[in-house]
Design brief:
MULE_transposase_dom; 45% helix; Protein FAR1-RELATED SEQUENCE; FAR1_DNA_bnd_dom; elongated; 488 residues; 7-stranded mixed β-sheet; alpha+beta
């Protein structure tokens, strides 16, 4: 390529217009020259026909034509096409032909037709011509990094254009960038969705043998559910897994595939991820398999408490697999369901009506009295949803759960904040390859927040609000212990 570039620079200085007898080291360098000429003039070119030695297969001649040469053949689908492609060909006869000189082993221009039958593109628009556009290897890396960082196509194209000194200097259009990303995604899914997932798991295992994954197969040997956890997730669970939240409310694609995630809180009160799962169905058997697989990854250590949403199949699976684990319903999920089922019944004030039962009433007698008063006031004794949650009151009502141990975790804390985070990173139109790429961003973001919390703990002084000698001295001893490695 360096030879072609230097040759074109030389030709550019001497004569940038084609002429008969002009010589080139290869047919590719001739093509590059005619393409450069087309850009200067304002038209695009394409390869038309060639001649070759039948015995050796060697290219002996070639013709390059204006892209507007000829006419498009009639498409049989024209009748069914709602938006047919715009016609671009005008039967232009401009072309340049080359032929090999065997004595010199070079190609030379043996004929050249200069006249066109159409106007040229303005110089400000020549970078948009089809054969003038190309994404280089370096640019492809930048495009990939932008996508992996969650930057939208529009924003990344604008950013890369600014770096290049203007979009016209990029060498490709936004559509080219979009097509490149689509082609890349199609290649990743070449072996189907299941093949893509298994390849991802295999690649992760090669990076770290402690990466854990498992897939569940149905009777036809098709993947139904899958679970995975990297080494750091497994270590984190060993330290912070006494209380966890299991959430299946996030849908990752148009086929309603459920993404399930096990999360908890670390010693900085930051969300920590223990594992993820893709659920093809949500039957009792699927949840039993998932919870057994989760415990297998975590060396059989069941959590003391698990928060979930209101799901009967899930509850039965937890009781079967983790009978000693306290199952508590997440009040955040319950409030979301209440907004769907009884918001109209409570005249749009469902939160104020139910919040006391969720978070405030301590005595059972007071709870039952207030509940019956609510049923009378709004005449909802026969409401099916209220009946169903009352039967489960031991799993959510503050009256019954306040004495249980939850490591200071609020039932709304994990699911509400983590669902908000997922919405920032994951979209419903992502394919499986994109999902894993962006889920890694979620994990990395959470782990970096833990580093920030560690930094704040070790670098910034503890804020003593009570100005007493004892607390001031305790603060000094605490920080000296960290500085000199003394156990405090």
């Amino acid at each position: 390529m360096a030879t072609i570039d230097s040759e074109l620079e030389c030709l550019n200085e001497l004569d940038w217009q084609p002429r008969c007898g002009m010589e080139f080291e290869s047919e590719q360098s001739a093509y590059e020259f005619y393409n450069m000429y087309g850009r200067k003039m304002g038209f695009s070119i394409r390869k038309y026909t060639f001649g070759k030695n039948r015995r050796t297969g060697e290219i002996t001649s070639k013709i390059f034509v204006c892209s507007k040469e000829g006419s498009r053949s009639k498409d049989k689908r024209d009748v069914l096409t709602i938006k047919p492609r715009a016609e671009t060909r005008t039967g232009c006869g401009a072309q340049m032909g080359i032929k090999i000189d065997r004595n010199k082993n070079k190609f030379y221009v043996n004929h050249f037709v200069e006249m066109h039958n159409h106007p040229f593109v303005r110089q400000e628009c020549t970078h948009m011509l089809p054969y003038q556009r190309k994404i280089s290897v370096t640019q492809a890396i930048e495009v990939d990094l932008a996508e992996e960082s969650g930057i939208s196509l529009k924003s990344s194209y604008e950013l890369l254009g600014r770096q290049a000194g203007g979009r016209e200097s990029l060498g490709y259009t936004k559509r080219d960038q979009k097509n490149y990303l689509r082609y890349k995604r199609q290649n990743k899914l070449a072996y189907g969705e299941a093949g893509c997932v298994l390849k991802y798991f295999s690649d992760q295992t090669l990076k770290n043998p402690s990466f854990f994954y498992a897939v569940q197969l149905d009777g036809e040997e098709q993947i139904t559910n899958m679970f995975w956890a990297d080494a750091k997730m497994i270590i984190d669970y060993g330290q912070f897994g006494d209380v966890l939240s299991f959430d299946t409310t996030y849908i990752i694609n148009k086929e309603n595939r459920q993404f399930a995630v096990f999360v908890g809180l670390n010693h900085h009160r930051e969300t920590v991820i223990f594992g993820g799962a893709l659920m093809y169905d949500e039957t009792i058997d699927s949840f039993v398999w998932l919870f057994k697989t989760f415990l297998q990854a975590m060396s059989g250590n069941a959590p003391k408490t698990i928060f979930t949403d209101q799901e009967s199949a899930m509850a039965k699976a937890i009781l079967h697999v983790m009978p000693s684990t306290y199952h508590r319903l997440c009040t955040w999920h319950m409030m979301q369901n209440a907004l769907k089922h009884v918001n109209g019944v409570f005249k749009g004030e469902v939160k104020s009506v139910l919040s006391g039962f969720f978070y405030e009433i301590e005595e059972e007698s007071e709870f039952l009295m207030a509940w019956n008063h609510m049923l009378d006031e709004y005449n909802v004794h026969e409401n099916t949803w209220l009946k169903s949650i009352f039967d489960l009151k031991e799993k959510w009502a503050y009256t019954y759960v306040r004495h249980a141990w939850f490591a200071g975790m609020k039932s709304t804390q994990l699911s509400e904040t983590f669902n908000a985070t997922l919405k920032e990173y994951l979209k419903s139109d992502l394919n499986v390859a994109q999902f894993f790429m962006h889920f890694e961003r979620v994990v990395n973001d959470k782990r970096y927040k833990e580093l920030e919390a560690e930094y704040d703990l070790l670098y910034r002084l503890v804020n003593v609000k009570i100005n007493t000698k004892m607390l001031i001295q305790a603060r000094e001893v605490f920080h000296k212990g960290y500085i000199f490695g003394v156990s405090t």
